[in-house]
Design a protein that fits this description.
The protein is of the alpha/beta class and about 210 residues long. The protein has helices at about 5-15, 15-30, 35-55, 60-85, 105-115, 130-140, 155-165, 180-185, 195-205; strands at about 90-95, 120, 140-145, 170-175, 190. It folds into 2 domains: about 5-80, Orthogonal Bundle (Methyltransferase, Methionine Synthase (B12-binding Domains), Chain A, domain 1); about 90-205, Cobalamin-binding domain (Rossmann fold, 3-Layer(aba) Sandwich), CATH 3.40.50. The protein contains 9 helices and 5 strands. It has a 5-stranded parallel β-sheet, sandwiched between helices. The mean pLDDT is about 90. The protein binds CO-5-methoxybenzimidazolylcobamide.
Length: about 210
């Protein structure tokens, strides 16, 4: 029987092969992709995040857990996408210029895909010009920016301004540990989300 607690534990331990096998088993047994994601993979990453905050584990353990999550996501992601209906809208997403962190951004991108968005992921270190160019080219309704560094928060402001200057009818949303709703208000972004699940709710509200 599929065991999401064991899957959660495999993520915490950074057991890539175990996480992959348990995810496959859960899919084969018909568990919902959202359940597998939230109660297995994300639950494990949350534990790691908490332990990191408490200095019980360090960056290598976090990375190893993230790799296990990535391995499991390779089989879960298509199911998350399948579980969605028609694309709700196109969303361009990326980690802003100067920042190479992508675990949270990838999670948001995956959850958005799972919720039915057509996601164009620009990766990391994305310049304001690149965000503008892709938003224009794809006729995206949403541009999502992520950052984990206080030093690169200003890249978000630059991008919001560049999108406005280009006259694009896009809604902008931001997220990442150092940013807040106040910061979103300050730079004129349309919304802020604290985690991947809230990012989905926010994106849905922005297109309605
Ligand atoms: Co870096 N790092 N790191 N790091 N790293 C942090 C962020 C840091 C807080 C660690 C610390 O010092 N305590 C610190 C930032 C300090 C600051 O500016 N406030 C830091 C630093 C300083 C650095 C370097 C500068 C270290 C150095 O070289 N001296 C360097 C920066 C390199 C660069 O980017 N230019 C660096 C490098 C790295 C690694 C490469 C080792 C690795 C990144 C690997 C990768 O991403 N591929 C790494 C990691 C793993 C971390 C920590 C440990 C974990 C980040 C993470 O993935 N969290 C982090 C410490 C910590 O967070 N406690 C740290 C898990 C992830 C699921 O959460 O990304 O917050 P998060 O995403 C959440 C929400 O924030 C939200 O939803 C996600 C899911 O719930 N969210 C959004 C995120 N984006 C969103 C977008 C949205 C909506 C919601 O809408 C669009």
């Amino acid at each position: 029987m599929a065991d999401l607690n064991a899957l959660c534990e495999a993520i915490i331990k950074g057991n890539q092969a175990g996480a992959l096998e348990l995810t496959k088993a859960a899919i084969n047994e018909g568990l919902s992709p959202a359940d597998i994601l939230n109660n297995g993979l994300v639950a494990g990453m949350n534990v790691i995040g908490e332990r990191f905050k408490n200095n019980e584990v360090y960056i290598p353990e976090v990375l190893i857990a993230a790799y296990a999550m990535k391995a499991a996501m390779a089989v879960l992601e298509p199911k998350l996408v399948e579980a969605g209906v028609q694309p709700l809208a196109k969303a361009v997403i990326g980690t802003v210029k100067g920042d190479l962190h992508d675990i949270g951004k990838n999670l948001v991108a995956m959850m958005l895909k799972g919720a039915g968005f057509d996601v164009i992921d620009l990766g990391v270190d994305v310049s304001d010009e690149k965000f503008v160019q892709k938003a224009k080219e794809t006729n995206a309704k949403i541009v999502g920016m992520s950052t984990l560094l206080t030093t690169t928060m200003s890249s978000m402001e630059k991008t919001v301004k560049a999108l406005k200057a280009a006259g694009l009818a896009v809604k902008t949303m931001i997220g990442g540990a150092p940013v807040t709703q106040n910061y979103a208000d300050k730079i004129g972004a349309d919304g802020y989300a604290a985690d991947a699940a809230s990012a989905v709710d926010l994106a849905k509200s922005l297109i309605n």
